[in-house]
Amino acid sequence: MTVERDFADNPPYELRQPSDQRIPFVFNSPHSGRLYPAAFLQQSQLDAQTIRRSEDCFVDQLFASAVMLGAPLMVAHFPRAYLDVNREPYELDAKMFLEPLPSYANGTSARVAGGLGTVPRLVGEGQEIYAHKLPLTEGLERINTIYKPYHALLGDVLAATRKQFGYSVLVDCHSMPTGIRFPESGMRPDFIIGDRFGTSCAPELANSAIHLLREMGYLVAHNKPYAGGYITEHYGRPLKRFHALQIEVNRGLYLNEHNYERKPGFNQLQRDIAQFLADLVSLPDFYFMDTPLAAE
After folding, report:
1. Is a pLDDT exceeding 70 seen at residue 171?
2. How far apart are CA 240 and CA 157, in angstroms?
3. Are strands 242-250 and 261-262 parallel, antiparallel or unpaired?
4. What stretches of 180-265 show up as alpha helix (H) in DSSP?
């Protein structure tokens, strides 16, 4: 099978766990994968550098302290250009495949129109990934073999966390291109906190995240232009005491986006994020428990 071949030597993702989960937080880095299968690169018309334009470089390392704090950390090793788990299961672009899409596929979403479906067509600023159309079976295999098990594991960890602590908090960790600017002022945000416009978590969680980062001297935006993707929307059910928050870090703080090497500021940013996480996970339980538990 194609996926088994692509990841024969390394697992496509992993769950990094503390010896004992001590806090009701779960962290997820779904776009930091940097294992590009040889067969995938052969299918692509992009060089090995350009194809990384959509990668959340080193985000798993920036948030690595979560495990030391006592929280699980899900980490994708497969690249986002290969498969995007921050999408619905079947957001597929009919133009990419040799055969017609199945009836259950969502081929008309805005993300598909932008070339950024579950099996992406584009990276970066509109660069086409593939030289030729793919067999539909290959796209479906990536979904069945990686996407579905990834989400099954993440869902199990969140359910177990809520069972143990009474609630769970998912922090979905991402990075954004250096060029992102506020439309009004033209200023570059260092972080963007997304809570699906107040629907994916207790308001105190997003407000505290923004406050903590601003106290550290960072410029922080809320929901614009990134309010959270499928993962934040799908898992954020605050009335059921499942809370989800998305954090976007500006790559300009830590990465040279031309050669994908860490900037000198990487270590300081990593330390700042470690302190930020330590403060964030110390929020009182009543922030997350005050809402009545909805029927399952």
Report:
1. yes
2. 15
3. unpaired
4. 203-215, 230-235
Using CA atoms, how far apart are residues 3 and 12, in angstroms rounded to an integer? Answer: 9
pLDDT at 292: 57
Backbone angles phi, psi at 23, to 5 degrees: -135, 155
Q: Is the pLDDT of residue 296 over 70?
A: no
* Cα–Cα separations (whole angstroms), residue 104 to 30, 107, 140: 24, 9, 12
Percent of all residues in the chain with a pLDDT value above 70, rounded to a whole number: 97
How far apart are the C-alpha atoms of 104 and 251, rounded to whole Å? 36
**Pairwise CA distance, residues 241 & 248, whole Å:** 23
| Separation between Cα atoms, residue 233 and residue 109, nearest integer Å | 15
Tokens of 289: 């428990």
Task: Tokens for 161, please give them.
Answer: 């966390």
Q: Calculate the CA 156 to chain-centre distance.
A: 17
Name the DSSP class of 252.
Answer: G
Task: Specify the long-range contacts of residues 230-234, CB closer than 8 Å, at least 24 apart.
Answer: 230/86, 230/87, 230/88, 231/28, 231/30, 231/85, 231/86, 231/170, 231/172, 232/170, 232/172, 232/194, 232/195, 232/196, 232/200, 233/196, 233/199, 233/200
Secondary structure letter of residue 134 according to DSSP = B
Q: Take residue 106 and report the two structure tokens written for it.
A: 């969502």
To the question of pTM greater than 0.85 for the whole model, the response is yes
Could you give the C-alpha distances from 240 to 84, 169, 172, 192, 292, in angstroms and in order?
26, 11, 18, 25, 8
Reading the block at residue 127, the tokens are 């660069």
Q: Which residue has the tokens 């308001």?
A: 203
